[in-house]
Amino acid sequence: MTAQHTHAVARDADADAAADRAGTPRLKPLFRLAQRLGQAWNGLRTRQARNGDYVAQVVAYRGYGTTERVRVLGRVMYARPGLHGTQDTFNNFRGWVSFTSVPIQDADVTVEIGATRAVVRADSGGVVDAMVDVELEPGWHDVRMSADGAEASVAQVRVVAPDTRFGIVSDIDDTVMVTALPRPFLALWNTFVLSERARTPTAGMAVLLDRLATERPDAPVIYLSTGPWNAAPTLQRFLGRNLYPAGPLLLTDWGMTPDRWFRSGREHKRENLERLAAEFPGIRWLLVGDNGQHDEAIYAEFAAEHPDSVAAVAIRQLSPGQAVFSGGTTHDGGGVAARPDVTWASAPDGAGLAEQLEAAGVL
Description:
By secondary structure, this protein is α/β, with parallel strands linked by helices. Helix content is 32%, strand content 27%.
């Protein structure tokens, strides 16, 4: 790893340490008060939803796993009828509508997949993220999720073959989708107002990922983002509409924790990369991201700790102004690698990344 990249990783570690210091004992009473206020607000919204035109729904999302265990993902919530159902897959919903749903906390959810039936529990944000023991063949399988008093939902789970040796992990914002993060007000407009029809795909990225998925049909494709679960319907429609390969979304919950005002997006990415390395020890991942939201440092750190789990790193370059304003770096990443045997590609679009990955034998 170069000195420049070592410093980038160190800066990230310092930032995380500073965030942790925000949870010192003197601030814990404020966190407890904020959590009580949050619970009261959620209770009020829940009562309003029950008395309004909202309905209880279980929304299943794509998952992944092995032939013996799968990770099922979903949400339990009160939402407007049809907002999250399959019948609205291509409807032109504005982004803010997805944020009007109300989570149903700690609900018991029944999961049915193949001959397996299991009961899992949603968390305090209504998010279902659980492992279920199964006996399944490699490929896509339907998973049905239901709960008492709520509309059920069906999604798919990707079961990865035991002999699979390559996979793809891709960021979303400013990697496969242009979000204009340097312009904060436009970023909010893109997130809360525009529908997926008005969002701009990053040039050449859909072709790159589709080519990778076509040439390696057994390779799982996973989208790892710091975006909230509320945005999942919009993101799924965007990816499908722009012909990105199908794959599960690994998103996060923006709510506060006992010692943080907001959950750490960088920690979310690190934890899921570590989890993928543990769940699929035989897979080497192509890590795709951009140089605007610390992807370079996160991927370099992961490659240093898990060299056998990384096939290559592909970084989409933002312009120097975009990278600076979005909190990233301004260098082009050329030659930066956690280990000499890890390919590091860097270009402003998918075509440039494809050219470098092809030259390195990854594509």
